[in-house]
Design brief:
Elements lengths: L1 H25 L13 E5 L1 H12 L9 H20 L2 E6 L3 E7 L10 E5 L3 E7 L14 E4 L25 E11 L12 H10 L7 E2 L2 E2 L7 H4 L8 E9 L2 H12 L6
Parallel strand pairs: 6-10
Antiparallel strand pairs: 1-2, 2-3, 3-4, 5-7, 7-10, 8-9
Helix pairs in contact: 2-3
Length: about 270
């Protein structure tokens, strides 16, 4: 009898330990919001391509022989092509405690508008939407941050992986984020990665700078001109809604579900 009791006593912890190990293996793995994940998706859009094409077409003025038209054509070509390269694609990347959305490849041409950080703790709500609004990144005085454009077939040289068949032309999905109201580009400046032009813009034209005094007024309210042009005291550099276009809506929503501890389905 004593032997049986001893055997039962010895076996019990082993069975409990095996059950605990099995439960640990079966449990879903939760990604910590403080650790950077591996999510990084890039969507090539038509806006940048159309700008580049418009710039090349403007070179037709060279055939006119008119010096003024020729000079205007060259200037337009340079400006349009650089703007197109500044927003040829939008990239969404998980950075641990925040979502980093950038444009490229020549992001410095956007003078700070091509980069936005959104902390997961600031996101109040998110969903896919059927709304459609394509423009340059950001619409001042509306509270809307646009990183949204119509999708195009992306080749291997302008995206991590080619997608000629999946997510091709106009195959994008727009994800709307509702966030705590703050200014554009808050904490977006990264002195180690931003170029001089973009860094200067992010430091002096975005973030906390927009709420600081400037020439007799608040910078984001129009400085001293706010007295006559902005009597309501609207800070035109605030945002509370962000639209992000993506060819990977399932992956992005799954990332947001994980980071924001919610369960949104497409």
């Amino acid at each position: 009898m004593a032997t049986t009791d001893a055997t039962d006593t010895t076996d019990a912890p082993q069975e409990t330990q095996q059950e605990t190990q099995q439960e640990t293996q079966d449990a879903p793995v939760q990604v910590s919001a403080g650790a950077a994940g591996v999510y990084c998706k890039r969507q090539v859009g038509l806006i940048g391509i159309l700008l580049i094409v418009s710039g090349v077409v403007s070179l037709a003025n060279l055939a006119t022989g008119d010096i003024n038209l020729m000079a205007r054509g060259v200037v337009n070509c340079i400006v349009y092509c650089l703007m197109g390269l500044g927003m040829l694609w939008f990239q969404v990347e998980d950075k641990g405690d925040h979502l980093l959305v950038t444009s490229g490849p020549c992001r410095w041409m956007m003078c700070g508008w091509g980069k936005e950080k959104v902390k997961y703790s600031e996101i109040r709500d998110y969903e896919t939407t059927k709304t459609c609004l394509f423009a340059e990144p950001g619409l001042p005085c509306t509270g809307i941050r646009l990183m949204n454009q119509c999708s195009c077939c992306q080749c291997g040289f302008c995206a991590p992986s080619a997608s000629y068949l999946s997510g091709g032309c106009c195959g994008q999905t727009t994800v709307r984020l509702s966030i705590n109201e703050r200014t554009f580009g808050t904490d977006a400046h990264d002195p180690e990665r931003d170029c001089c032009l973009e860094g200067c813009c992010l430091r002096n034209c975005f973030g906390a700078k927009c709420s600081q005094p400037c020439l007799g007024g608040i910078c984001g309210e129009g400085c001293l001109f706010s007295m006559c042009l902005n009597p309501c005291g609207v800070n035109c550099m605030t945002m509370n809604t962000m639209f992000i276009s993506t060819n990977d809506p399932q992956g992005l929503i799954a990332l947001l579900n994980n980071k924001c501890n919610k369960e949104v389905t497409i």
